[in-house]
């Protein structure tokens, strides 16, 4: 049971999407959960889907590719690149759903040390147009984000 | 001597920058000039600088790093990742000047076949805020873009 809320903010005037979430673990552990594929696959995405990571080179200038599966069926595929992996501080990566490969987002995750073993992650996504941003928001991504972060709470709690 | 103008467009309401330029060569040759490091280093950037490519993995999920030198002195360093390399059609990459590493841009180059051995390249950059976009515009990048494209004209003509 978590008491940490996930805030999703949409700027009406910019093609950006911001997600703010606190975690009950220090920055190094939260950061590792974003960059180590064995951890990422255990929390990323909605509860009922399984993430199968096909490629993951989690360092500055590397790339990744994964698929979401449910009930033995592939639902969606995603890929991107790691622009910068700045340990325990900042992670900048690109992201595309293969179903709309021209709608690329640039995602920046900032890991802020709140003290007392807590970390705030502010994730900012920017795309080329407000229309693309609105498509992402209306895709139901909020369910995946919220459930994924709850799974991450559990993973961090389990140690 | 080129007769192809470089158009640089700034949207007042979006954190984007668009550069449109035609080249007198077919898409495959223009695309290769963007992805083959031996060609890139011969045209990228202003005339008086020399580009030293330190890393270049020009494929989807790869990364790059280069430095600009003048008169034996390093002026600036840049790095980024290749989100997608879609041959002869589309190139999506990230870009950062190391002097302001948090101001990352997502750059999409679309290669359009104009027929008669000509190609239009539309380059769209998006960043997180209009302030960052305005900093990029006021950095004097236009000189580098225009001179670089003139060098690319010469390279394509020679080649």
Automatic annotation (TrEMBL), chains A, B:
Biological classification of the source: Bacteria, Bacillati, Actinomycetota, Actinomycetes, Micromonosporales
Every Activator of Hsp90 ATPase homologue 1/2-like C-terminal domain range: 24-157
Family per record: Belongs to the AHA1 family.
Species whose genome carries this gene: Luedemannella helvata
InterPro entries the record matches: ASHA1/2-like_C, START-like_dom_sf
Superkingdom in the source lineage: Bacteria
Protein's UniProt name: SRPBCC family protein
């Amino acid at each position: 049971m978590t008491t940490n809320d996930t805030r999703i903010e949409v700027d009406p005037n910019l093609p950006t999407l911001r997600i703010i979430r606190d975690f009950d673990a220090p920055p190094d552990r939260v950061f590792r959960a974003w960059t180590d594929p064995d951890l990422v696959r255990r929390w990323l995405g909605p509860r009922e889907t399984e993430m199968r990571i096909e490629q993951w080179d989690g360092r500055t200038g590397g790339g990744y590719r994964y698929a979401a599966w449910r009930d033995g069926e592939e639902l969606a595929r995603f890929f991107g690149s790691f622009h910068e992996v700045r340990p325990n501080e900042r992670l900048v990566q690109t992201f595309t759903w293969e179903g709309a490969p021209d709608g690329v987002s640039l995602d920046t995750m900032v890991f802020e040390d709140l003290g007392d073993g807590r970390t705030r992650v502010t994730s900012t996504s920017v795309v080329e147009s407000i229309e693309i941003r609105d498509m992402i928001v209306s895709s139901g991504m909020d369910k995946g984000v919220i459930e994924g972060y709850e799974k991450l709470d559990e993973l961090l709690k389990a140690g």
